[in-house]
Amino acid sequence: MPRTDAVLADRRLVAAAGRLGRPLVKAAVVAAQQRARAGTIAPEEVAGAALAHLAELGPPRRVINATGVLLHTNLGRAPLSPSAARAVAAAAGATDVEFDLRTGTRGRRGRGALAALAAAVPGAEAVHIVNNNAAALVLAATALAAGREIVVSRGELVEIGDGFRIPDLLVSTGARLREVGTTNRTHLADYAAAIGPDTGFVLKVHPSNFRVEGFTGTVEVRELATLGVPVVADIGSGLLEREPLLPDEPDAATALRSGAALVTASGDKLLGGPQAGLLLGRRDLVERLRRHPLARALRVGKLTLAALEATLRDPAPPVTAALHADPQVLAKRAGALAATLRAAGVPATAVATRAAVGGGGAPGVTLPSGAVRLPAALAGPLRTAEPAVVGRVEDDGLLLDLRAVLPEEDAEIAAAVTALAAGRGHAAPAGTGGPGDPGGSAGLGARRKANRAAGPDGSGGLAGPDGSVGPEGPEGPEGADGADSASGANGRGGGMPGAHPQEYGGTAG
Length: 509
Fold this sequence. Notes:
- With 509 residues, the protein is of the alpha/beta class.
- It has 3 domains: 4-55; 63-78 and 320-504, Aspartate Aminotransferase, domain 1 (Alpha-Beta Complex); 82-315, Aspartate Aminotransferase, domain 2, CATH 3.40.640.
- The protein is built from 19 helices and 17 strands.
- The strands form 5 sheets. It has a 7-stranded mixed sheet with strand order 4-12-11-10-9-5-8, with helices on both faces.
- A hairpin with a 2-residue loop joins strand 13 (349-358) and strand 14.
- Helix 6 runs parallel beside helix 14 (302-313).
């Protein structure tokens, strides 16, 4: 058995200790030694096993999203705009988040973000911000319907990811559910028959992570608003106004004009900002929510407020730019990138493909895109390159879809691919690579095993023991309304049905 101090002298573990601290690295080495004593690994594998464990503990790493999913749940959903990133940096120190610099007295917390949200949706009498959309719905149910009934269609009792379900969330608040209609069809008369003196509100949930087609029927907000009780519309994906490219996605402005008393939405989806829950609607209802004791527990921090305000004032966050990217421009970029890689001796081809919105928005909708096709064996090494490049494996090839890739990132992709193909490897720092890459990328030949399937049930997340991965594994514990967790064949894989069936069920990578 190698001595502990000898293992800790490994240069990779020394580098990891510089990032994670020596006590954590030593504990990983001791645990690996115990595995070796038990016979589960060979003594010479102790350092590698320790590194594999430490890789799971490292800080988040930058990733170039070439999956073709604009809002990839496992990759953090919406990337922040440069202005939002600058706002976060400015707010990292002391800031006037709850202080009036003119008077020297306490000010309204997050007044800038609240003002920006109100300006973005003039039809809202008042607005409030909590830490995610599920929290917004829980706050509404607690403040408006605890001990009372929430009337909701059976077809809208959805699961939002990682096993969290809307009915469970609502019941946890002390409200009672009055389910109406059926899975595929619900009528206005169903709601009307269920409404009584014990009704807190009618809930309208947009099923943003799946589609039901065929013999179906739903009741729109404008019809529900005629029933004489408040209507709470959970629009989920965060559109504040209509988006012509996504005609089936509801938006806050239209819901309010249609008579919704309260609208809840996400900040980190189609809005393109940080994770946040947005509440917009009638002044009296928003004030009840704002003054409820639970609101304090759901309060957002200063960094979220700064990022959200900057996003709301930004004319085109990255998600919006990616959504509206010109397919011809994407094709030209793919052609140029493929030509650069071929000149470096890498077999690369520009191909037309389809991208998906993802992240609990526009289920079934795909967008024309351009991609570069590479050997599938590059998938694993690119995921552990610096920066990491995550694509999708399709038809035994690796596709790097450019719709969600910033134009300035094309050169970084080219550098990472050519370095790997040449055997140089732009390795991730020790202690931050994936579990399948304890020493960083070591060239194409050493990573041939990285592309095995993540598992028959679609599990595997963003890294398996051998470095394998599908572009979208099961959703993480945050559990906000992701489409990416609802479309595997067994209900556990992630992704958008019909867009990339091989990958988004979690069986490729």
